[in-house]
């Protein structure tokens, strides 16, 4: 498939990443089918896209006409056959669990056109293992966006053991057409490049706090103001979603060993469903409008 053959993109999963990817694709002029398993999930994703496009228009980063046109190109759907039946590229952004993703690929393979490329937005899981569930491992690769997709420039394009060179090339071109900068990741190892570095950093910060060595505010103050990162480590955890970091670590722990064991503080946040900005509370409280308060 050539870039010119791509008109319709299906995005599976309307959560933080899914709706952000759908927005980016629609802004680039693609017809987008946004699918989730429940109407309320997909409507919520659609409303987030609307909010974000209007925010960009308010700040003159996009004209209101272009924002409206992008939203028009997004169709929220629950029916999987309708969502993928005419898709040229299917980008999957469902929860970071191997079993959930495998189930989705089993279902999607039944309804997707033969020409369609499957691209997973997994943060850490084996591309090769996911591709093996399908009948098209050569038309399968990783396409890993960063949160929030509309603001983050990088996309990791990850090769599975059987990904065809043509598949990787066209997905890189698609990322460029979305206005992003793709980086090819040749080795399909847990967390790829960015999360192999970033998620252990966030976990180490959680270990320090779990062991009473320091506080959340002190860590974030050092990461943000001394190390020069745009957000504090815990602030970033809340942005990414504590469930996402936790699942990435669980997988790294299983495959790579004890150095990646999730910290108790992070585990507690997940157990209490304090998942970050998306639930109104994480390491910081967003509900009362306080948000991040770093000295
Ligand atoms: N759409 C539109 N507007 C948005 C938005 C969105 N999706 N998200 C936030 N905004 C708005 C906010 O509402 C705020 O608006 P306001 O000014 O009216 O209050 C504004 O954008 C904030 O923008 P600023 O210009 O003040 O903020 P910054 O320029 O500091 O940029 C940032 C924000 C780009 C998120 C920056 O803080 C950053 O780069 N943070 C690091 C993010 C990062 O590292 N992400 C990767 C995480 S790893 C990952 O995702 C991988 C996964 O697999 C785990």
Automatic annotation (TrEMBL):
<feature type="domain" description="3-hydroxyacyl-CoA dehydrogenase C-terminal">
    <location>
        <begin position="191"/>
        <end position="286"/>
    </location>
</feature>
<comment type="similarity">
    <text>In the N-terminal section; belongs to the enoyl-CoA hydratase/isomerase family.</text>
</comment>
<feature type="domain" description="3-hydroxyacyl-CoA dehydrogenase NAD binding">
    <location>
        <begin position="8"/>
        <end position="188"/>
    </location>
</feature>
<protein>
    <recommendedName>
        <fullName>enoyl-CoA hydratase</fullName>
    </recommendedName>
</protein>
<comment type="similarity">
    <text>Belongs to the enoyl-CoA hydratase/isomerase family.</text>
</comment>
